[in-house]
Design a protein that fits this description.
Elements lengths: L2 E12 L2 E12 L3 E5 L6 H9 L6 E6 L2 E5 L2 E2 L7 E4 L11 H6 L7 H14 L15 H13 L5 E5 L7 H18 L2 E6 L2 H7 L2 E6 L2 E6 L1 H6 L4 H7 L3 E8 L2 E4 L2 E4 L7 E6 L4 E17 L2 E8 L2 E8 L9 E6 L4 E5 L3
Helix pairs in contact: 3-4, 4-5
């Protein structure tokens, strides 16, 4: 697959405050890249730099070999082959749904504008809402219109900044599925900026984790979740138990068992253990301190040698608070990485 849009070693600051620190990200044709990170990590700033809405102090933004941004030289957004969808959708209130979609098609004859807008409206499942104005549309309908408008000019890439965050939970999943189906069908490279872990893991082909102005890990959602490269990366995608220990004879000893590693003997390592990696059976000598229902699963806190770890199991596990149990660890859900200073 070809790279459609790319940031290379981009630096962006607001005054004396650096926001992007030599950040690189590539968007591939026909794939969805989710950019996941907490508020203030630089996600939206990176999107704005890719879109040409923000300048940069160093680095470049390229599209298929053509430089779009460099220090002191920024191609404006309207001259980039991009579609954009923002958190508030930014629909024109005085235009109907059909007119909003057709807005960017002024280069086409009137009849062609109408044909294309109607086709996108039908693909969005909203043919019966063509004459409705934004205030007459639900949040989910507005969002689909905004995406259809972004796709109208057949952009090479579509950039979405928290596009589902304003929708209530009952609408979010169905609206998201509709929207992502439309985006996949377009063949465009898609960047989805989000702070929602479940959204990023379930929708992305490629997941990029962002922290403190830098991309700290990229890969498939499964590989990033299962094999985090640091405690910070692990924390961004879900619950994690962290243990520090020295490598001895190719193993790190934890309160819940020894774990093999290929790191050098004597190195200080961090053992990253997902709650799902911990299996609990009775009887044993490790105490359950707490047991709570978390939807379809049960979260259990176990303690050994004054160390507490969270475990996650299905509801069939009947172990209760105060029980003494045995604990085993699944190596496939454990990563051992060099300890961070």
């Amino acid at each position: 697959m070809s790279i459609v849009l790319e940031a290379r070693d981009v630096v962006r600051a607001y005054g004396d405050r650096p926001v992007l620190k030599a950040t690189s990200l590539a968007l591939e044709e026909g794939t969805v890249t989710a950019l996941l990170g907490p508020s203030g990590s630089g996600k939206s700033t990176l999107l704005r730099v890719l879109a040409g809405l923000d300048d940069l102090e160093a680095g470049t933004v390229l599209s298929q070999g053509q430089v779009l941004s460099s220090p002191g030289n920024v191609t404006p957004p309207e001259k980039r082959n991009l579609g954009m969808v923002f958190q508030d959708f930014a629909l024109f209130p005085h235009l109907s749904a059909l007119e909003n979609i057709a807005f960017g098609l002024s280069h086409l004859p009137r009849t062609k504008q109408q044909e294309k807008a109607k086709a996108l409206l039908e693909m969005s499942g909203l043919s019966n809402r063509a004459d409705a104005h934004p205030f007459e549309l639900s949040g989910g309908e507005q969002q689909r219109i905004a995406i259809a408008r972004a796709l109208a000019r057949e952009p090479a890439a579509v950039l979405l900044d928290e596009p589902f965050s304003n929708l209530d939970s009952s609408l979010r999943r169905t609206t998201r599925d509709h929207a992502m189906g439309l985006l996949h069908a377009s063949g465009a490279a898609v960047l989805l900026v989000t702070h929602d872990v479940e959204e990023a893991l379930s929708l992305a082909d490629t997941l990029a984790l962002m922290s403190d102005g830098q991309i700290i890990q990229t890969g498939t959602p499964e590989s990033v979740y299962m094999h985090p490269t640091s405690a910070r990366a692990a924390q961004l995608t879900g619950d994690i138990n962290v243990w520090r220990g020295h490598v001895l004879n190719g193993q790190v000893e934890t309160p819940f068992g020894k774990i093999a590693t290929d790191q050098n003997d004597g190195d200080l390592a961090e053992v990253l253990v997902r709650p799902e990696a911990i299996s609990i059976t009775a009887p044993g000598n490790i105490k359950i301190l707490d047991r709570r229902t978390r939807g379809a699963t049960v979260e259990v806190t176990v303690e050994a040698d004054a160390v507490r770890w969270r475990a996650r199991a299905g509801h069939l596990n009947t172990a209760q608070q105060g029980d003494l149990v045995s604990v085993s660890l699944d190596p496939s859900l454990i990563s051992i990485v060099p300890a961070q200073s």
